[in-house]
Design brief:
The complex is a heterodimer. By secondary structure, chain A is of the alpha+beta class. Chain A is built from five helices and six strands. In chain A, helix 2 (30-38) packs across helix 3. The chains are: A alpha+beta, B alpha+beta. Chains A and B meet through helix 2, helix 3, strand 1, helix 4 and strand 3 of A and helix 2, helix 3, strand 1, helix 4 and strand 3 of B.
């Protein structure tokens, strides 16, 4: 089984992470604004953020755009791959900059990845290329028809 | 629709920012523009829904949200809207999409659930099941994360 890294978060870490998962304001001193709400000093907040980033708890702080609104095309693709080759194929798929997420899952379609590409032509091109990979038994695209929700948030218990 | 400057801003701000007191000042220096111009453009993207959210992205496995289940459902076309909205109302559901089916994949509604344990995820699935009365579904837990990165524009 996988090793679970034990990282002990302090109450303050958790409070900070809960705040940072909300929209961060576009102002000159964003940390000052959040620090005030947390009733701590700006320096302390920034220091903690840097430490959480160093520990890999924070992956990044960035803007999430709606790909469609930027005229990009997002999609979901699944592939059936013999377990023996799945790591190798996954690594190959990851080479495409358009691949944003790639997970192994427990089903016949055992590899699921998302693409955000500049147009549908590019998506078709990537899929066509992957179809030639002998280790991929089947590959299917599952484009979204309707979005009901996108809200990635992991509430951390502060009680 | 977007100027060259917009494209540079979007490409830069969709990756990690500098961890300094004035991150937007640092970014504006990189772009060769004034901070005020950058802040104005960012607010414009946000107000017009180009930008969903400016926030932290966490490594969920490191904060003990170890498990992620992609639940796929076969919902009759005429009920998809209603069921999709019901699923979206669950706090533990982070994503919910209607998607095309395939000849060997008869599922059209997808919901992503994160939890600290598998049981926590499955409890949410049970709850949803009860609410929508659908028995034709599958839970696909992820066993390996090969990539998770920001979109590159």
């Amino acid at each position: 089984m996988c090793l679970r890294p034990r990282i002990k978060l302090s109450l303050l870490d958790k409070r900070i992470l809960n705040f940072l998962q909300e929209d961060i304001a576009f102002v000159e001193r964003p940390w000052q604004l959040i620090a005030k709400k947390l009733d701590i000093k700006e320096d302390q907040l920034l220091k903690t953020i840097v430490s959480l980033r160093r520990q890999g708890i924070i992956r990044r702080i960035s803007a999430v755009f709606s790909p469609r609104k930027l005229s990009f095309v997002p999609t979901l693709v699944a592939a059936k791959i013999s377990p023996k080759y799945i790591e190798k194929v996954a690594r190959r798929i990851n080479l495409y900059a358009e691949v944003t997420h790639n997970y192994r899952r427990n089903a016949e379609y055992n590899l699921w990845f998302t693409l955000i590409a500049r147009d549908t032509k590019r998506i078709a091109q990537i899929i066509t290329r992957l179809k030639k990979d002998k280790n991929i038994k089947k590959i299917s695209e599952f484009p979204a028809i309707k979005i009901f929700k996108i809200n990635v948030r992991f509430p951390l218990n502060c009680s | 629709m977007f100027s060259k400057l917009d494209k540079s801003i979007i490409s830069l701000i969709s990756q990690d920012i500098p961890y300094v007191k004035e991150p937007f000042k640092a970014l504006s220096l990189k772009l060769g523009i004034r901070q005020g111009v950058l802040l104005k453009r960012l607010k414009y993207y946000k107000d017009n829904n180009f930008l969903r959210k400016f926030c932290v992205s966490l490594n969920h496995r490191k904060i003990d949200y170890w498990h992620n289940a992609m639940v796929v459902w076969n919902i009759p076309e005429e009920f998809v809207d209603k069921v999709g909205s019901l699923m979206a109302a669950f706090a533990q559901v982070t994503h919910c999409y209607q998607r095309e089916k395939a000849s060997d994949w008869n599922y059209n509604l997808y919901s992503m659930i994160h939890g600290r344990t598998k049981k926590e995820c499955l409890d949410v699935v049970k709850c949803i099941c009860k609410k929508i009365g659908c028995k034709d579904y599958r839970v696909l837990f992820s066993s390996e994360e090969y990539k998770k990165t920001a979109a590159k524009y």
